[in-house]
Amino acid sequence: MAIVALKNHPRLSIEVHATPDKFISSQIVETGEWEPFETHLVECFLRPGDVFVDIGANIGWYTIIAASIVGNNGYVYAFEPGTANFELAARNLVLNDLQNVTLEQIAIADRTGTGRLFLSRENLGDHRLFAAEEERCSQTVSVTSLGRYFEHNPTPIRMLKIDAQGSEARIFEGLPDDFARTRKVAAILLEFWPYALEQSGSSAKSLVRSLAAQGMSCYIIHECFRGLDPIDLDVLEQRAYGDLRENNLFLNLLALPATNAVPAAIRTMIRPPDAFLFYHAAR
């Protein structure tokens, strides 16, 4: 067992996987950070009293940071279907004495029922609701839609983080088209991985259309130089069936309501169009 103090949140600590983990736990141990620029985006949007939804919470990195920011008058809903990840996330809530979190061992998709979660041996953040090319162990998990989960809970949701290894399109398919507007969503962080979206039984086209239906504008997140590139949804769809598909690449996106003014703190991170540089992150 290893417990690491968060580099920029010294009052918070996180227990990481004892077994080797190719990405998340190993980077936290080495640096005390995980996705520092995306984490900064969460810090820019969240305020005391807000509600944050963490889909694909893994061991709870974003969950515990968000819970510490929103405070006792705010709330976090976190979803992690993998048993080992879920148990670590639960211990991390106790470790940091965070009582403003509901942690659910549920996969979010477009339906309610059960499914199979296929587990990666090396990358413990790469468990998927579809069979991978390599042979994987699997476990039965509960599945629900975000629309159904919040059906009788009308709380405004300030921010969502969605990292579900190909289930992103299905998550949006399980939402009413006015979800972002009626819930007053200010920002969504999500992964856009065309290969996995198709393998999950949906498509990149479906996810792009859902983002449009929710009234979102998108920006590519660049961890390497801490910047954002605006990308038109039509261009995003073209790339999904071009270089991203051909090279099995993914993008991390920040989606903001197109009708809202971009917050001042975010405007300073947006690169001008004549400085466009698409960053590809290889799987």
Helix/strand/pairing category: alpha/beta
Which regions are unreliable across 5 or more consecutive residues at pLDDT < 50?
A: 276-283
| Number of helical regions | 12
CATH superfamily: Vaccinia Virus protein VP39
Strand segment tally: 14
Summarize the main sheet: 9 strands, mixed
Residues in helices, as a percent range? 25-40%
Q: N-to-C terminal Cα separation, in Å?
A: 28 Å
Enter the CATH topology name: Rossmann fold
Instruction: Average the pLDDT over all residues and give the rounded result.
Output: 93
Question: What's the short story on this structure?
Answer:
With 283 residues, this protein is α/β, with parallel strands linked by helices. Helix 9 (204-213) packs antiparallel against helix 10 (233-240). The protein has twelve helices and 14 strands.
Describe the structure.
The protein is α/β, with parallel strands linked by helices. The protein has one domain (34-282): Rossmann fold. 31% of the residues lie in helices and 28% in strands. The protein has helices at residues 24-31, 36-45, 61-70, 83-95, 146-149, 168-173, 179-182, 194-199, 204-213, 233-240, 243-246, 264-267; strands at 2-6, 9-16, 51-55, 75-79, 101-104, 106-109, 113-119, 137-145, 159-162, 187-192, 216-222, 227-231, 249-257, 281-282. Strands 3, 4, 5, 9, 10, 11, 12, 13 and 14 form a nine-stranded mixed beta sheet that branches. A hairpin with a 4-residue loop joins strand 11 and strand 12 (227-231). Helix 9 (204-213) runs antiparallel to helix 10. The longest helix has 13 residues, at 83-95. It is globular. The protein starts with a strand and ends with a strand. The relative contact order is 0.12.
